[in-house]
Amino acid sequence: MQSELERQLNEVRTKYPLVGQHIEYLERRATIDPVTCLYSRLMFDEELPIRLSETSRRGGTLSLLILDLDEFKKYNDTYGHLAGDKLLKDSGEKIRENLRKMDMAFRYGGDEFAALISHYMKGNITGSRMTSAKKVAERILERFQKKEMPLTVSIGIATSYGNSTAKDFIECADKALYCAKEIRNTIYQYPEILP
User: Residues 57, 113: one domain?
Assistant: First the structure.
């Protein structure tokens, strides 16, 4: 069912094509990060509760990967902001290339990225759901380690059945990321699946 606002926007788009183009431009600017071409933090904040609810309803799990470029500030200070932006864009591409079409990648902030990975499998295959997210993280880590990228990446993973709050889910993925960053160039998975 279309909301009243959506109906009015569609009416404006039809009646005034230039205004419609401008609305589409603004929508894109709000949802896509201009440096990495990944979804923006604003989009992440909107999408996460939706994905959690869908996961709970469908009986699957949702994994959140938070990725941080190791020593990015040092790289940016040494090579400049244009080189830093190129590295951010290349990093976003490496992340996106290792996700399925149904998964989403975001620029979370600064030199941090996030990915939402949905798992809808029949039966109670909890271990394989956690393993699936870790395999995605391993593929991403491997791309950085093969010297395709001048920096390494640390990755934290949390997995939920969809009944946890977005705040709790993010906090667990953050804790996992901090554990990974203590070692650097590694993956740490939060040890249990959240409700």
Answer: yes
Residue 194 in domain: no
pLDDT tens sequence across 6-58: 788 788 878 888 877 777 776 777 789 999 999 999 999 999 999 999 999 99
Chain centroid, CA 29 distance in Å: 17
Q: b/e for 141-170, b at 16 or more Cβ within 10 A? A: bebbeeeeeebebbbbbbbbbbebebeebb
Chain-centroid distance, C-alpha 176: 15
Same domain, 49 and 4: no
Segment (H or E) for 87: helix 81-97
For the segment 75-90, what is each residue's pLDDT rounded down to a tens digit? 999 999 999 999 999 9
Residues 26 and 54 in one domain: no
| Structural domain range at position 169 | 33-189
Beta pairing class for 153-160 and 61-69:
antiparallel
With a pLDDT cut of 70, the percent of the chain lying above it is 91
> Do residue 42 and residue 73 come from a single domain?
yes
Is 78 found in the same domain as 5? Answer: no
Does the model's pTM come out above 0.90? no
